[in-house]
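User: Quick sanity check before I run a bigger batch. Here is a single chain. Can you write out its predicted 3D structure?
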Amino acid sequence: MSPFFQRRCKILDVRRVRTSSYLASSNGMVESLHCSLHSGLSHYVNANHKNWEEFVRFYLISYRANPHTTTGYSPFYLFQGREMVLLSTDNLKARLPKNNTDDDQRLENLKTNLRLAYKLAAKANTVTSKQ
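Assistant: Done. Predicted structure follows.
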């Protein structure tokens, strides 16, 4: 694991979690993603279900880039602190970074953005759970 990633995990209080093998109920969040993945891929695979791996990466990009109804934020935003930039013909031009921020500044920006996003997502989640 890179030092930058280790620092990010520490700031975000990310911990490794180990679950029991072959016991799907022990990891409900992952099972929920698997259900969504299965549902999404079922629209694109061929009749013999042999080409599903061609579509997984496209589904995951879509899943990570789109805001969830509960939080109002995309999973990518909640992890990166910024929206995902998807390629189009408009952004194929070479770009130079506007500012050369160091790792410490990047991490501070990430913490600030994510604190606000988590606060608003928790508020949205509380309102949704009361309904």
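The chain is about 55% helix and 0% strand.

User: Great, the batch can go ahead then.
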